[in-house]
């Protein structure tokens, strides 16, 4: 079969794969659009503080928040510090004095005693202390109070969870608000203690949005994780996955619960103090609109210098509610995503498209024979993996990484030509290049379409490779195409060239740029550059979905410039910057927790804005070239 004919077959496979990806993505978009309900929760501890300083009851404050859009309350499991107005601590030598004569002889040296006059609270404390503290609890009775003795110091007691405030939770429920309980971890967890702690939540199961965990390690992980899953399943509530707060055991628990998970975004009590209301509002809104967070914990900046905590907080909630409604979201009882339909046939066909593109890429760099051989080997392996369902999730990640590497490199290599192009032709080739890269983006968005990726339990693997490998492939292809058999000699000549100050400065600039590029290519980026935060906020406000800087400010302008100049080795950096934009385009769709339509709009905005800036750049460079030619200073 001639090269032309087998390439036509490969492109046919790529088109079939794109159509298959379209089927999967259609199902994914339907799933995402069907889950538009968000829950807004306030932290009960802040509600209590606002109520105390406003001269109102917590119930009255909750009603006012409800009128503005709040429909849930976060209740953290209480600690001894939270209960200091209801419980007082005494060491053994002081407790002796407080107890009646009949109980003084039972006081144990080294114990700490918790005193309370609330019988129901005493019962709750006894339950949790018995299940969370080795050695049990000593119960002593006084005149109108109960004393609970434990073999721990007050310092050791401070982080022990002591259950939830039932009366306050009942007030919230009676006000028509949903409940978000957050359980603390404890030492010596076992199946019985897990059951005792979670049993107290059974009365609220119909009102619970999601069960949250407070610490970096789930209670019972790893030995009793299956027991925890069974108890949560019995409770019939989803668990909350808090964004940017990894918790050991939570992903495994989510899988045991068949992905009955709600994504949660929360700004911490300390962090909210450093944010302006506008910044906090933008962050919460983007978390819901662009990252599928469906439970939003709203906290307020209760700074001492503020004039009116209550009304400022109510105004913030009102603005947040309006922003969410403008985004097409509905405030209600958030629920987990429905299962996404899955077909190994569509996944298989998409994988064939990735393999076909890989063969085309190798042919484009002059390795046609190796491409065909590797393509056939890949076909056999992929067919076996999908057919036998062996390590399919892992291989889907491998295929997604392959698409992220192959398509940007293929797109720009096929656009490369030593001949300068007219502006019209350069625009057309840029659009064609973008379309080829976009095929790879579609493949990734489809091949990783799964609830575990939507919930970010799983993630695209190999981000650094996806950002670096296409640049290396293009550089090698450019040298081979330009130099042919002289490529080796040319490279040796470069390496033997005399070192000049200009080369050292250029190398330093490239090194710094490369480090910055890599540091900002992961799933968790580094801090923003000066003024970048303001630019991002402005673009978000104007364009709804902010385009990526690497696309509109670097990629498209320099790709357009490179095409208008034609390939020369001295323009290699321009071509690589153009390729960075294509890499970024594909990478945008590897973040499956971002709704597909948001990624699509972000890509479109990056394209038109980047082309506009590219036209400005090319026009400016052409004007400069004309001027330098008149002065006989243009190098050619």
Automatic annotation (TrEMBL):
It holds the Pfam family DUF5693. Keywords: Membrane, Transmembrane, Transmembrane helix. InterPro entries: DUF5693. It comes from the Bacteria. The chain crosses the membrane at residues 345-365, 372-392, 398-417, 429-449, 461-480, 501-519, 574-594, 606-628. This is Uncharacterized protein. It comes from Neomoorella humiferrea.
